[in-house]
Amino acid sequence: MRHPRRWKRLGVVILAAIVLAGCSRDPNVRKQKYFESGARYFEKQQYREAAIQFQNAIQVDRYYVDAHYQLAQCDLKLGLWADAYRELLRTVDLNPDHLKAQVDLGNMLLASRKFMEARDKAQLVLQKDAKNVDAHILLADADAGLKNVEASLGEIQEAIQLDPNRAGSYLNQAYLQLTANQTAEAEESFKRAIQIDPKSTHAVMALGNFYQQLRRWSEAEQQYRRGIELEPKSPLPRAALAFLYLAEGQNAQAEQVLLEAKQSLGDNSEGYRMLGDFYFSLGQLDKAMAEYASLFREHPKDLLVKKNYVQLLILHDRLEEATKLNDEILKSNPKNSDALIDRGQILNRQGRSSEAIIVLESALKTEPDNPVGHYHLGVAHSAVGNVARAESEWREAIRLRPTMVAAQQALAAVALRKGDIDLLEKTAEALINANPASPEGYVDRATARLARRNEPAAEVDLKKAIEVAPQNPLGYSKLGALRLSQKRFVEAEILFEQALERDANFSEALQGLVGVYSQQKQPAKAVARVNAQIAKAPNNSTYYLLLGMLLASSKDLEKTEEVLEKAVQLNKNNVEAFLLLGQVQLRRGSADKAIATYERCIQENPRELRTYVLLGPLEESRGNWQKAQELYQKALKIDPEYPLAANNLSYLLLEHGGDLGYAVSLAQTARTGMPDSPYTADTLGWAHYKLGTYDSAIRLFQEAARKTPQNATYQYHLGLAYAKDNKVELARASFQRALKLDPNSSRVDEIRQALAVLDAAP
Asked: What predicted TM-score, i.e. pTM, was given to this entire model?
């Protein structure tokens, strides 16, 4: 009879199940289990999983202080600053005496440069715990931000006295001592931190950075190598060592360090990407491209590799490949702001800037503080002619990222166009601060100083540009231009040649050489030198344009046309070559070829306004004034304020019975845009003549005739206005003057008829 024992055992199992079920329904037990699970994930550095468990605990008990605090710690680790700040606020709302949360809030305020608010948090904690070391450190950092140097050093020393064995306190003290220019004391503090914690990579790297700032290269190298020994799987020490070599000008050693890093950190995305990023930072785009193509083959699922590869494809104008990969990213996440920005860049490069604006604005709705998005939105607005909005976007990009070189350069270009020397100086200083090893900032500052007629200071800057980047042609070329302006031709020639030795395609330097020879009346030497450079760089469209300009001056029009045709074949966006080619074809008596050339230019460069106003008169000369009207309208669609198109369209409408009100409006637009032009004066005068306001017409025709006294049409128009205003003798004199200026004018019969009417008048 063993059944009773079996039933007894079964009863124990059932009882245990009932007890366990009761426990699982107990909210205190459930939240504790979630919390403990989150803590285990946190310890393993699995912060997303930990955050989920802490959130589960909070769902069970929304007043669970420790879960809110730990969730904030997860958010901090994940870089979710807004979420972390919210959870910390919730923690101190539930428990104002949670001093760790109060200090964490203070440190977040400190990071946001809200120094006074951070100071208040530190003092609040110290009122409750005068020996709280973290609060003393927070107060020290807040005082440093408020420029209270002595108070800051006093607080950090108090923290060290309270806990003399905390390495981090000595690091803080070192940074504060550097702020106070106490260099020797800072070095001792860095060393003391390492002495307390010899395995602290952070302390070792901090001392290495300190030595690098002092250009104590060998000591910095020693610390960075020590950092690699301490954390052989961390990319940070290897990157620091590479950029130390770069700062010393030892590029080959830097490259070798990163090659070794790629081999040693083959499973670390940051580690194996460093070599490609290094090439990119040096402007070695071909090497960067090859490296990232290899990385993409090896790590096709690495999103950062894919994004960086897309960026390089864009920079190499391989837009079809870039679009394909970028669309794959957007298919997975249509709101991926980086991919949307890349799409905007692609559209910009395709000349579809209006579409780019829509895409980039969409990206900025998702991520409004993205400086790259604002920069490229500025590029798009600049391309459609909205310069003011472009400048605004570039300023916003710089506000968000003051070290953004591309935005600073764009703003510098705006300053140059506007002649705003103050803005140019400001952007130049920002460029120098952001990238002191780059020549651009020094060159821009030199340009500003030259505008202020300070040649000695400008020369110092240009020599500095050469010093910091001896392999970059820019400094040599700009100093060559200065020497050319000083008529120091031999020095200018040497500098331009040095620039071309460093970059055979550096067009600015060859243009400078042409200037040297032209000023010395040596056109044959200029032609020979350009031909020699074309032999070295046969695919440079600008070089063919230069040669075409020289040949056009020598009147060898057949050869000129051939050379300019080569220029536009090499670069369909070389607008200057297209325009000059059309002019040469006209000089050779081939209007049809010129028209075809301008039509090609419009097809390839539809936003180039000059082409429309060059092609329009050619169509008019063929009697096709409707086609000319259409061309001017297209130009005005691109830029409604473009004065040449407005002037020409207005005149056509006035001549062919178009909308008089619209014609007058266009004439006024043209006059506003070109207030000193005799052309706009004549057109607006013709509009007033058609309106019957003869006094205004006479005044404008007089201005046009005074500025261009050899123009028969202006005299004819003036005569018509005088006649309508009953100023017979003045009208007769103007008509006679028109006939004398151009006896073969197409209007000769009209002028003679007008004179006959005057003579027949009583």
From this structure: 0.66
Distance between CA atoms of residues 122 and 559, nearest Å: 79
Query: Hey, what are 307's tokens?
Result: 């994004």
Find all residues with CB under 8 Å of 104, minimum gap 6, and list them. 72, 76, 88
Q: Give the integer Cα–Cα distance in Å for 274 and 262.
A: 8
Rounded distance between C-alpha atoms, residue 123 and residue 718, angstroms: 84
Q: Name the CA radius of gyration of the chain, rounded.
A: 37
Q: Determine if residue 317 is left, alpha or beta; phi over 0 gives left, psi from -120 to 50 gives alpha, anything else beta.
A: left
- Packing angle of the helix pair 440-451, 473-485 (nearest 10 deg): 20
Contact 673, 643 (CB under 8 A): yes
At residue 372, what is the residue type? Answer: V
Burial 20-54 (b: 16+ CB within 10 A, else e): eeeeeeeeeebbbbbbebbeebbeeeebeebbbbb
- Coil, helix or strand for 383? helix
pLDDT digits (tens, 9 = 90+) for 514-568: 999 999 999 999 999 999 999 999 999 999 999 999 999 877 899 999 999 999 9
| Domain ranges for the chain | 680-762
Contact at 8 Å (CB) between 664 and 687?
yes
DSSP 138-167: HHHHHHHHTT-HHHHHHHHHHHHHH-TT-H
Q: Which ranges constitute the DSSP H helices of 180-318?
A: 183-196, 201-213, 217-230, 235-247, 251-264, 269-281, 285-298, 303-315
Predicted confidence (pLDDT) per residue in 437-480, tens digit: 889 999 999 999 999 999 999 999 999 999 988 989 999 999 99
Task: Evaluate the CA torsion angle 733, 737, 740, 743 in order and state its sign.
Answer: negative
Calculate ∠ Cα 52-58-64, nearest 5°: 130
Distances (CA, A) of 173 to 4, 110, 139: 76, 16, 12
Q: How far apart are the first and last CA of the chain?
A: 153
- Tokens 């006024």 map to which residue? 668
So what CATH class is 680-762?
Answer: mainly alpha
Beta strands in 695-750 (DSSP E): none
Query: Residue 229 CB: number of other CB atoms within 10 A?
Result: 11
Spatial separation of the C-alpha atoms in residues 316 and 540, rounded to whole Å: 16
Report whether 68 contacts 98 (CB < 8 A): no
Residue identified by tokens 């403990």 is 36
Q: How far is CA 72 from the centre of its chain?
A: 35
Mean pLDDT of the chain: 90
How far is Cα 495 from Cα 527, in angstroms, rounded to an integer?
A: 19
Q: How far is Cα 665 from Cα 162, in angstroms, rounded to an integer?
A: 80
Contact 336, 330 (CB under 8 A): yes
Selected residue with higher pLDDT from 745 and 52: 52
Which of the four pLDDT bands, split at 50, 70 and 90, describes residue 25?
Answer: low
Give the confidence band of 676 by pLDDT, cuts at 50, 70, 90. very high
Summarize pLDDT for 161-175 with one digit per residue, the tens. Answer: 998 988 888 888 888
Whether pLDDT at 277 is above 80: yes
Q: Which residue has the tokens 């803080």?
A: 172
State the helix-helix crossing angle for 371-383 and 337-349, rounded to 10 degrees: 20
Contact between residue 66 and residue 54 where contact means Cβ atoms under 8 Å apart: no
Answer whether 275's CB lies under 8 Å from 291's CB: yes
Indicate the residue type of 436.
P
**Cα-based torsion angle of the residue sequence 601, 606, 607, 608 in order, rounded to the nearest 10 degrees:** 10
Structure tokens at 683: 């057109």
